[in-house]
Amino acid sequence: MDYKYKIEQLRRQDLLRTVRDRGCPAGRVINIDGRDLLNFSSNDYLGLASSPALIGAAKQALMDYGHGAGASRLLSGGTTVHALLEEKTAAFKGAEKAIMFNSGYAANTGAIPALTDDNSAIFSDALNHASIVDGCRLSAAKRYIYRHNDLDHLESLMKNSPCAHKLVITESVFSMDGDVADIYNLNLLCNKYNAALYIDDAHATGVIGQGRGALAHFNVTPNDNIIQMGTYSKALGSIGGFVAGSEAVIDYLFNTARSLIYSTALPAAAAAASLAAIEYVEAHSELPAELPAELPAELPAELPDLIVKLHKTIDNCRRMLRSKGFTVTLDNTPIIPIVFDSTAETLHISGRLLEMGVYAPAIRPPTVKQPRIRISISAFHEDEDIEHLVNALSEAIR
Fold first, then answer.
1. Which of 118, 249, 263, 295 is deepest in the core (most CB within 10 A)?
2. Low-confidence ranges of the chain (pLDDT < 70)
3. Where in the sequence numbering do the catalytic residues fall?
């Protein structure tokens, strides 16, 4: 295969990607190629990735357990910190049990094929993340794609499927559009057709439902037919993925999920950082106005209530964008897509933003069908950052 020719094809189609690595911690301002830029490209929604709480927890675990895990989880790669994180994750999600994966991608590509077989039917939202798509492709199940957030179309597919075992899969907050799936009515529909509901909560955990995710947001009680997948790597500021559900589901995944069985475990330091992040979000979901007195000592008291601040910043950004004539959805999530007609136009806008000190890369096919600037809001953004972003976007599209 002529890869040089294929690279040139990508270049001509404005689809060639290049990597730009930062020379600093994740945060509000990042340094790329020697320039300080306002960062609107991160999934670090609560700004915890560089927080002293997570760094301190990781340092202590590094001293206690070393760096590399040395083996897969089913051999000797796990530690008591891994087990504690899984217990905390299950409680955080209201589930009986949880299992940790090396990434959200590994969770979806491991769990989905493991939970289905050739007697199953998978019903997947048309805009689900690539990791879900790949997990479905690895499954032996019959696959159905329903129109995005179209529950009538989903029901028609479920009604006509002869398969006894049905699994509906959706993101809760969609990663490229920022809209929210109707989890309440999806759950009712799954109950009606005796189907399991698999929720990818990656962009909802730490953000909606007082940080606990989509089920809490919609006031849906977890049950044996609901499987919650999520990540520690976005709002929780760490690394790794998880699946939470009934004890039977999680025990089965420990025995069958290939991406878990055949991967070296994440270091204990990563698990410790994730644990510190959940403890922070748990503390703030109970008393969102101030830090509670019983907050663990390793979490610095000067940290603001990040969840509340995040949503105030989201509201401010969406309001200012609308005032400038941008079309913005009503969903109160940190993901705000500004869609353009062509890839060339999107690249031009992204380049103009870069000139004005704003880092917001173009999102292009095949990641999305319609190119866009995907604005990601974080709790670390200040009002003047949002104002600069909106003014820069207005200037860039003139």
1. 249
2. 284-304
3. 43, 129, 171, 175, 200, 203, 234
